[in-house]
Amino acid sequence: MQSGRKPAVRIIREGAELDECSRDSGLLTLKPRAVYVASTAAEVVQALADASQSGLVLTARGSGTGIPTMSVGTGIVLTQDPGGIEPSPGRVRVSPGVVKQTLDEALDRSGSWMPVSPSSYRSCSVGGMVSTNASGARTLLYRSTIDYVESLSVVLPEEGEKEVTRVPLEEALSDYGSTGRVARLLVENGGRIAREAPKVTKNSCGYRLERAIHDGFLDLPKLFCGSEGTLGVITRVVFRTVAKPARRAMLVFECAFDDLDRLVAALRARSPSAIELVDKSIFAQTGREKDIAFLSRTELPYLIFFELDGSGERVSQKVLDLAADPGLAGLDPLVIMDEGRLEDAWRVRSDALVVAGEIKKGDKVAVPGVEDVVVPPDMLGSLVKLLSEVFESKGLEFISYGHAGDANLHMRPLLDPTSRAGRRLLDDVMEDSFKGVWKMGGSITGEHGDGRLRAPYVKRQYRETYELMREIKQIYDPRGLLNRGVKIAEETG
Ligand SMILES: Cc1cc2nc3c(=O)[nH]c(=O)nc-3n(C[C@H](O)[C@H](O)[C@H](O)COP(=O)(O)OP(=O)(O)OC[C@H]3O[C@@H](n4cnc5c(N)ncnc54)[C@H](O)[C@@H]3O)c2cc1C
After folding, report:
1. Distance of CA 30 to the CA centre of its chain
2. Integer CA distances (angstroms), 35 to 32, 80, 129, 132, 240, in order
């Protein structure tokens, strides 16, 4: 590693911070050679130069809440100081290290909102959200991070610091640099790209090629969104913001598997902000039934959270009308209007993964792998059936929760990921589940991304367009300096 000059960037080579950056929320621990903490774009440029000169791979890192092993690496792990937030009407400029909750609090003062809110909003960073194309409970109405990214500042391995913005397609096509090469690749392969895009409401698998050209523009920020630190290091984000709704109200249903499709289809027709699912057994297995006692009044297995938002009394009235709807007769939902109670209900939903993390049966824990599959929204029941049958065929217990309205489920089998047998079982579960998901026209990840864990499957999801993704990686990062092995699998043999 380079020495002899005193770098401005803070470099850590041992101790607790290095250990902390060896882990994210995935299965693998990878110890980096060094952790760099940058506070300016120039320091990010310097970190990349050091990586290049030392022959090390650089992994950008936000808060390390990424699930499929994506913000750890054996070379340089680069984090950025939180930096600032500059709101203006309709948009906000924000540093990538800012935590989403901090951004929410800053925007709240002006009544505006960047409405994508992952359950991890209290700790995840804005840079991590952009890089995974994170979503959350309210995707049904507000969609995903990709829908709010207006422009980015990035540091590219071959080009240094660069503003990435939407440009007229004609202008992009006549460019001689990376922008022109990417534009031509996308235009020449437009048919294949459109054909292969999964028919789902959210997707974080591969690069989002189908979103990069629209309305006569090349929208490069959409290509970088969800790229998991493999194309460039983001140093500044500009998000579009919207007015925050003044009111919201909720219905909580309890239902059996057989009622899922009917209930969710009926609820989707009401323009909800969210339809979420939690399997009560997560709380039962951890002895935390009391946490959901205020919502759970029957022995039925699933809680379904339905939220409407908007302005004025009409929100409450619509929710009351729906609760009395004869089409939902017999489901007797709990009506929640009080803000404090709403927060309590949302806490149950967003704590589901944290509580699931406490489940331990011998060496078995709830592992990621198929924890984020997504299929067309009217196939929710088929997805639950597919995954349940895969787990049961291998004798595995499992937990379930997720975004029912998008048919994006976070189901996890319980197994020992540290044993060879456990790893083999996980591979089998991923193979069988992904094959079923692809048959339904779905995607292997709706919001968490590919990471190292799912990288080998990206090629199989995009049989016709994976080579284009490799070419794009090659255009921006020809020497493989950035997050190698994440998203784009390293070829073996
Ligand atoms: C309890 C829990 C709940 C979760 N709930 C949700 C949810 O509801 N919705 C959802 O979408 N996800 C969820 N996640 C996953 C995770 O929180 C999100 O993917 C989040 O956006 C990651 O942010 P981070 O700051 O932790 O990123 P990290 O984990 O640090 O990094 C994630 C990826 O982004 C890249 N990256 C980070 N910063 C930069 C940068 N500046 N430039 C380039 N690349 C960068 C990294 O290299 C990595 O590939 C959850 C995770 C946990 C543990």
Report:
1. 21
2. 7, 10, 21, 21, 32
The span from the CA of 67 to the CA of 51, in Å, is 25
* 402: nearest Cα among 275, 263, 267: 275
Distance CA(153)–CA(162), nearest Å, equals 6
CA distance 10 to 17: 12
How many CB atoms neighbour CB 196 within 10 A? Answer: 18
Residue 116: which residues within 8 A CB-CB, separation 6 or more? 129, 134, 135, 136, 138, 139, 142, 143, 144, 145, 147, 148
| Residues 6+ positions from 262 with CB-CB distance below 8 Å | none
> Model's pTM, two decimal places?
0.96
**pLDDT surpassing 50 at residue 54:** yes
The span from the CA of 463 to the CA of 447, in Å, is 21
**Where do we find the tokens 């994508």?**
116
The ligand 1 atom nearest the CA atom of 447: 11
Q: What is the pLDDT of residue 328?
A: 83
Q: Give helix 466-476 / helix 178-188 axis angle, nearest 10°.
A: 170
CB of 353 closer than 6 angstroms to any ligand 1 atom: yes
Residue 349 Cβ < 6 Å to ligand 1:
no
Residue 181 CB-half CA count within 13 A: 11
CB-based burial of residue 294 (10 Å sphere; 0-12 exposed, 13-18 middle, 19+ buried)?
middle
From 458, 484, 473, 476, select the one nearest 206 (Cα to Cα).
Answer: 458
Let me know if 4 is exposed, middle or buried by CB neighbors in 10 A (0-12, 13-18, 19+).
Answer: exposed
If you measure from the C-alpha of residue 68 to the centroid of ligand 1, how many angstroms do you get, rounded to a whole number?
Answer: 10
Ligand 1 centroid distance, CA of 330 (Å): 40
Backbone angles phi, psi at 63, to 5 degrees: -105, -5
Crossing angle, helix 380-393 and helix 420-439, to 10 degrees? 150
% of residues, the chain, pLDDT over 70? 98
Q: Which of 142, 115, 131, 66 is nearest to 372 (CA)?
A: 66
pLDDT (tens digit per residue) in 188-223: 999 999 999 999 999 999 999 999 999 999 999 999
